[in-house]
Amino acid sequence: LADLTAPQILRIVNHAHYLKQVSVPWLAPQSKKSARLRMPSQSLFNKSIALLFAKRSTRTRVSAETAAVLLGGRALFLGREDIQLGVNETPRDTARVIGGMCQGIFARVGAHEEIEELARYSPVPVLNALSSLWHPTQTLADVLTLHEHAHLFDTALKTPPPANKPLPQLRPLTVAYVGDSTNVLHDMLVTYPRLGHKMRVASPEKPAYQCPQPVWDRVTQLGCDKDIWWGSDPKEAVKGADVVVTDTWISMGQEAEKAQRLQDFAGYQVTEALCRDANPDWKFLHCLPRKQEEVDDQVFYGPRSLVFPESDNRKWTIMAAFDLLFGKWDLAGEKTLK
Ligand code: CP
Ligand code: NVA
């Protein structure tokens, strides 16, 4: 998301809201007159999107496959065991070959450099489905979820947004993140401050849990750092927070470090007690999959938790990104996001 402007990010999120309304008829009952117009764009008709996934996925994969169907196209799931990449073929050659047959690549990779290389050599757009440094489509879903629940943060807005209406504005929020400096956090850091929100982060003091330099460079280039407080005390981080967010302490590929990480993150579990000094109406977000060590059941399954609307919104935001970046690319190129 660091590659997009704030208006471009909001353009995708608002488009996701529109696509959700027109794809789920009971959310926005359609009049007979408007029914033909109010259908999702079929911008992927006769098109194929390659899902190049080197890691596991439930939400991102299912979102992508089902969204492609609604846009009139198809997605090809290409897992690590399925294709030649990484065994018999380089990312450069793979990008050129797949890009010659498909109209977009949605890639989940290990090291971030791998997706940079795919993007460099692909003749079609490449969208990040998660890398070591970034998880942009997760933040898109989180922003949509917060806008849909704007009434929970603002007493002037008494009800959820009515169907057929644009998304409501969000009042400036304080978003706290406690846990590891993961790909999920990094996209939050380059997004929330540009949308007018403040961030408060706590991660353990060890260098391994601090923000990687390439990410912090983007944060400062975008001027986001002035709205970010970063410390190591989770209680301090959640002070005054409207939203509390965490992610797993053991990301995919870090399984061997589990014992050490459980020790280092002691005291970081999100609970009612930890968040005593947050805004009394604080809400909870988590990208999932969730483990109990980072958030207890009371919070995760309780009324503060927006985690399942958040996971539903993975689909609509990925659909919006596919429509604008893949579906309409050859019609208007990058201009579809302006
Ligand atoms: N949140 C998320 O990316 O989930 P998956 O790994 O299941 O896709
Ligand atoms: N930080 C986690 C996110 C999973 C969606 C990981 O990279 O495994």
Automatic annotation (TrEMBL):
<dbReference type="Pfam" id="PF02729">
    <property type="entry name" value="OTCace_N"/>
</dbReference>
<keyword id="KW-0808">Transferase</keyword>
<dbReference type="InterPro" id="IPR006131">
    <property type="entry name" value="Asp_carbamoyltransf_Asp/Orn-bd"/>
</dbReference>
<dbReference type="InterPro" id="IPR006132">
    <property type="entry name" value="Asp/Orn_carbamoyltranf_P-bd"/>
</dbReference>
<feature type="domain" description="Aspartate/ornithine carbamoyltransferase carbamoyl-P binding">
    <location>
        <begin position="1"/>
        <end position="148"/>
    </location>
</feature>
<dbReference type="InterPro" id="IPR002292">
    <property type="entry name" value="Orn/put_carbamltrans"/>
</dbReference>
<dbReference type="InterPro" id="IPR006130">
    <property type="entry name" value="Asp/Orn_carbamoylTrfase"/>
</dbReference>
<dbReference type="Pfam" id="PF00185">
    <property type="entry name" value="OTCace"/>
</dbReference>
<dbReference type="GO" id="GO:0019240">
    <property type="term" value="P:citrulline biosynthetic process"/>
</dbReference>
<dbReference type="GO" id="GO:0004585">
    <property type="term" value="F:ornithine carbamoyltransferase activity"/>
</dbReference>
<dbReference type="GO" id="GO:0042450">
    <property type="term" value="P:L-arginine biosynthetic process via ornithine"/>
</dbReference>
<dbReference type="GO" id="GO:0016597">
    <property type="term" value="F:amino acid binding"/>
</dbReference>
<dbReference type="GO" id="GO:0005739">
    <property type="term" value="C:mitochondrion"/>
</dbReference>
<protein>
    <recommendedName>
        <fullName>ornithine carbamoyltransferase</fullName>
        <ecNumber>2.1.3.3</ecNumber>
    </recommendedName>
</protein>
<comment type="similarity">
    <text>Belongs to the aspartate/ornithine carbamoyltransferase superfamily. OTCase family.</text>
</comment>
<dbReference type="InterPro" id="IPR036901">
    <property type="entry name" value="Asp/Orn_carbamoylTrfase_sf"/>
</dbReference>
<feature type="domain" description="Aspartate/ornithine carbamoyltransferase Asp/Orn-binding">
    <location>
        <begin position="173"/>
        <end position="324"/>
    </location>
</feature>
